[in-house]
Design a protein that fits this description.
Blueprint lengths: L1 H17 L22 H23 L10 E3 L3 E3 L1 H10 L8 H12 L5 H7 L24 H17 L1 H10 L7 E4 L2 E3 L9 H19 L5 E6 L5 H4 L2 H12 L7 H7 E6 L2 H10 L1 H5 L3 H13 L1 H7 L8 E2 L4 E2 L1 H9 L10 E5 L2 E4 L8 E4 H4 L7 H4 L5 E5 L4 E5 L10 H16 L7 E3 H11 L5 H8 L3 E3 H9 L18 E22 L2 E17 L28 H4 L9 H9 L4 E3 L9
Parallel strand pairs: 11-12
Antiparallel strand pairs: 1-2, 3-4, 5-6, 7-8, 9-10, 12-13, 13-16, 14-15, 16-17, 17-18
């Protein structure tokens, strides 16, 4: 009892010393020592040493007793009940980790940053934690404070949404800690409709989703065989043994003055551990999640993903291994980083499979289906072609790329990806055409390849149409597609006499993690209305007309006030409501690469992808 009282007195004293200036939980930049507490730097260091010594003594006492002092097992959110014996084993497994060899450290540093990297880029990647927004309306969003690591944060965000909204394994656990109306509804065997009550998820539910997402990504990178978790030698095990209220203080003091400006710095501070089962990796991530929430979090997670994949395998994935993964001059995450986190391979392209250039040379794309997908503004500008693997993921969640930033787009209803009969027909034709396209996504094929497409898809073109398309010696997709739209279904085309089949109406949501001025969430002050600085959440109403609707009739496509993803208005219903004017933003161009000619509307500020 005396020992317990001493520990309680120590905790109380520490809490009282921090009352005047509590740690800011959502900042990723290092804070000045003066803002941490009223104690002097010497006292702070002494306090940290005493705390870690007390933690070590506590571990030693625990190994000499058969049961904890409380006589009851500990409980983990991820691993469930942990008995005394298991806790002793766990304590032995948790170590500071292994050093990378100097060779590995240099290979890792130059693979990520290259030669001559600027201090500004290094600062961006050393000052971004993985933290949720403190704002209630955007509490599911991972906040970005620095430019550069957005590709890492957006990929993690996409998996967090998967686990919070859709993952069946999490539904029962989430239901135990969230209100009934916040759990997803299962409407059919293959359809889930998640709740739009984003503020209903508890901190524990979000933390559990974050740990599961990080672990899933690392095992995906490790070919489902291993996960390598990187941490810092200066932090050690004190974080695991400390009270939650002291964790930020310990980490901030450990990171004080720490910078990574060279491969030598990386070699000195980095420690890595390898786990071969998801359960063990989850427990470790759960124990040290405050480290990933610190200012070094995004960089540590990228390093963990690269090491999980294996540095040599990462280089083999790439088309040009000589280029750094973090691109100059602004320090953005490359497509290889995003692809690594989404599909487990650091391939540089977004098309399906690989493209044979002849002479034994080929370009690498995404070869497997993915859990969460990817869309990009660059496709709307004809710079690339996103393949079906990334465009049609298992869950309706997409990382969205622009020229300088990554954000996240998602739907709550999995039916937004369902295809009706004619859409499935279009996908079949497009897939057959792309298989013959050797132009790198340019959208044209040879006459020989064109005849192969016609055979595979059972399209019977009139002779005059066939001669017209083949006259130039190559066939352009846009011209071929227009012919298909005008070709009757009986001949293999998509022309429909009713003109109404296939319309879809559904909602999409867009997250931008960079804190921006938001007029929708403005506050009133004595000087007038003041926009809030917070991540941006935008709800979009999307109407997708039948893809074979002639352009001259597009103005008559109404955006109805309500409806489901599979809604197919018929008869006079489409003539009742006057169409709302279509709104435009660059995100709409990205949406149209997935749903051609989609009409989008929203309330308030337009969605931003920069």
């Amino acid at each position: 009892m005396a020992d317990q009282q001493e520990e309680e007195d120590l905790r109380m004293a520490l809490r009282m010393s921090m009352q005047n200036s509590p740690p800011e939980p959502k900042r990723s930049k290092p804070r000045e020592a003066a803002n941490l507490a009223t104690t002097t730097p010497e006292e702070s260091r002494r306090l940290q040493r005493e705390l870690m010594a007390a933690a070590a003594e506590k571990r030693m006492l625990a190994t000499g007793k058969s049961v904890p002092a409380s006589g009851s097992p500990l409980k983990s959110d991820i691993g469930g009940d942990i008995g005394t014996k298991e806790m002793e084993i766990k304590a032995k497994e948790v170590k500071l980790g292994n050093e990378l060899s100097e060779k590995e450290a240099y290979q890792l540093f130059f693979m990520v940053f290259g030669n001559g990297v600027s201090k500004d880029i290094l600062a961006q990647w050393s000052n971004q934690g993985i933290r949720f927004s403190p704002d209630p309306e955007t509490s599911m969003i991972l906040v970005q404070h620095e430019g550069g690591p957005c590709g890492v944060l957006a990929a993690i965000q996409a998996f967090v949404l998967k686990h919070l909204l859709f993952c069946p394994d999490d539904l029962v656990k989430a239901a135990q800690s969230t209100p009934q109306n916040s759990t997803p509804r299962r409407l059919s065997k293959n359809q889930y409709v998640a709740s739009n009550n984003f503020a209903a998820f508890t901190e524990n539910a979000k933390a559990r989703a974050l740990v599961k997402s990080m672990g899933e990504i690392l095992f995906l990178c490790g070919n489902n065989k291993r996960a390598v978790i990187a941490t810092l030698s200066s932090i050690g095990d004190g974080v695991e043994e400390s009270e939650d209220s002291l964790t930020d203080v310990i980490i901030t003091q450990a990171l004080e003055g720490l910078s990574i400006e060279s491969a030598s710095d990386l070699h000195k501070v980095l420690r890595v551990e390898t786990y071969t089962t998801p359960a063990s990796a989850y427990k470790r991530l759960e124990a040290i999640i405050p480290v990933f929430q610190s200012r070094m979090g995004a960089l540590l997670f990228l390093i963990s993903a690269l090491l999980s994949r294996g540095l040599d395998c990462v280089q083999a994935d790439r088309d040009d291994p000589s280029l750094p993964l973090v691109t100059a001059p602004f320090g953005h995450a490359s497509q290889e980083i995003v692809n690594l986190l989404l599909c487990g391979q650091a391939v540089p392209n977004v098309f399906d499979g690989r493209m044979d250039l002849g002479g034994g040379m080929f370009l690498k794309g995404v070869s497997t289906n993915v859990e969460v997908g990817f869309l990009t503004l660059l496709e709307s500008l004809n710079f690339c072609k996103v393949g079906q693997n990334l465009k049609c993921p298992k869950w309706p969640i997409w990382v969205v790329g622009s020229e300088s930033h990554y954000t996240v787009l998602f739907a709550l209803d999995t039916a937004v990806q369902d295809e009706n009969e004619l859409e499935a027909r279009e996908s079949q034709i497009r897939k057959a055409f792309d298989a013959q396209d050797q132009s790198g996504g340019g959208g044209f094929i040879s006459v020989e390849g064109f005849h192969q497409v016609l055979r595979e898809t059972n399209i019977r073109l009139p002779s005059e149409k066939l001669d017209s398309l083949c006259g130039s010696g190559f066939i352009v997709w846009s011209e071929f597609w227009q012919v298909i739209l005008d070709l009757d279904k009986s001949l293999g085309g998509l022309k429909d006499s009713t003109g109404q089949m296939g319309q879809k109406i559904f909602d999409l949501y867009h997250f931008n993690g960079i804190a921006k001025s938001d007029l929708n969430g403005s506050q009133f002050s004595s000087g007038g209305e003041t926009p809030m600085q917070r991540p941006r959440l935008t709800k979009l109403r999307v109407s997708v007309p039948p893809r074979w609707t002639p352009e001259e009739f597009m103005a008559d496509v109404a955006v109805l006030p309500s409806g489901s993803a599979g809604a197919q208005p018929s008869g006079k219903d489409t003539e009742v409501a006057k169409p709302e004017p279509s709104q435009h933003a660059p995100l709409v161009d990205c949406i149209r690469t997935r749903w051609p000619r989609a009409v989008c509307n929203w309330v308030g500020d337009p969605p931003s992808i920069v």
